[in-house]
Specification:
Mean pLDDT: 91
InterPro entries: HGPRT, Hxn_phspho_trans, PRTase-like, PRTase_dom
Organism: Weissella viridescens
CATH class of the domain at 18-149: Alpha Beta
GO biological process, one term: guanine salvage
Shape: globular
Bound molecules: 1-O-pyrophosphono-5-O-phosphono-alpha-D-ribofuranose, hypoxanthine
Number of helices: 3
EC number: 2.4.2.8
Helix content: 10-25%
Structural class: alpha/beta
Main location: cytoplasm
Distance between the termini: 29 Å
Strand content: 25-35%
Amino acid sequence: MSQWDMNNDIERVLYSEDDIAEAAKRVGTELAADYEGRTPVIISVLKGAVLWTVDVMRYMQYAEVEFIDVSSYHGGIASSGEVDLIVDLQTDIAGRDVIIMEDIVDTGRSLKFMMALLEQRGAKSIKVASLLDKKEGRVVDANVDYVGFDVPKAFVVGYGLDYKQLYRNLPYVGVLKQAVYDPEHADLVDTTDITPEH
Ligand SMILES: O=P(O)(O)OC[C@H]1O[C@H](OP(=O)(O)OP(=O)(O)O)[C@H](O)[C@@H]1O
Ligand code: HPA
């Protein structure tokens, strides 16, 4: 195997390409049924949710898609606690049914920030569809309505999720090897006793 291979940096795969394709079909089909007769605005959260968004929306009917970018991680593995709006929506969502598409809800800070913003702008309804829900990571209240997988408390990468902007293009979700992290952050990552919940 070539040394120049991202797969070498992965400790273990949690959700395979097939697992994710199945989850996208399940969530997309459920959304199609729940939004029958309505045209929701899908709000895809850059950059991580792009792959999940396009895979899920293939199973839906009439829907618009918009992008937003909020950031609390600034590239590393620890949430900074402060959320910034980096890229705003290009449309008015007042009176609209919106679906926030996330790759992961972890501390909940990004989602809480977006929920407040969309409520303030007069969204008629707001639901959340996330590939991963890391419930153990929550530090603020944030609820996910449509979940791909409940993910254990470990820093994961792949299928949109990054570490320092890399690994988003892996087709699966996995745990990064400890050795890949900056030594000063090593204590923030727990890769032991991780059991996939599927
Ligand atoms: O629940 P939280 O602790 O707020 O974490 C979840 C957020 O963090 C990640 O985005 P990030 O800010 O890293 O941007 P990215 O999608 O561009 O990687 C992820 O895509 C979520 O939006
Ligand atoms: O586990 C994670 N991996 C990548 N990005 C993230 N943003 C919040 N949690 C994570």
